[in-house]
Amino acid sequence: MLETMPPVGFGLWKIPRPSTAETVVEAVRAGYRHFDSAADYANEAQTGDGLAEAMQSGLVKREELWITSKLWNTFHAPEHVELACRKTLEDLQLERLDLYLIHFPIPLEFVPIETRYPPEWLHDPDAAEPAMKLARVPLHETWAAMEALVDKGLVKRIGMCNYNSALIHDLMTYARIKPAVLQIEAHPYLTQDKLIRCAQGYGIDVTAFSPLGAQSYFELDMAREEESLLGAAPVMVAAQAHGKTPAQVLLRWGVQRGMAVIPKTTKPERMRENLAIDDFELSAVEVAAISALNRNRRFNDPGVFTEAAFNTFHPIYD
Fold it and tell me: With CB atoms 3.0 to 4.6 Å apart as the test, which of 8, 41, 54, 257 could cross-link to 59 if both were Cys?
């Protein structure tokens, strides 16, 4: 298995199930070796089919891949963590994950796999007034169960998504196995300087989801077209200077800040484009100009979407 997470990964969020397997094979063919999955993406079985096909056809070996998945909110209780992990491993057709992350610091009441999978956010979608149902599970108990997965050889590394600095400081006081990775939303409109510095100060690697900013959120009505970073002046200036696309500049900006990035696309030409960012370097002036775009604009904010979509106000960022 890989010892270092490849800096550019392939994000599987919102990849349609009917085309997921084919997309994964095409991504492997394009050169991707880092795949970012999650139970909640509802396409892990299809992702597993794609990975299996890529390996069986000789395109790639298992030891050349870095596979990440995530523990969903309804499986936070210690007795459910291994259950969730084994379901993910079964779907992905793998014996071990390279990295397993707590998806959100939001414990929800357990929903049996045979009842509904993935369970998503609503406890009972058919209720008269469907809503989230919070569970009384301390995060330290969930982390201890994650550590047990490492002990059993089911996962190589563990980490967390969507934690703030206070939760990281707290985690580091009790973690027997230290987190390997923090995954957060990060792009020039949300630079997250303090949080990234906090994580890296503890020796925790950082992965940026939504590294292109608003692009993933237009279809969800969670971002406006005018919020696209692809047309931002400092990005376009750098793109022209280096003969690269704005998307390549945004990904390079993330990598130069010491993060891994996980863009998502279903188009083979975009797959190759997103990988081709190691043959140029942004200057300090260019990095600073792009970073100055920061407006603390968070597109993926539970404090907004849980109330709008799931009748439950549950912020995790102040």
Answer: 54
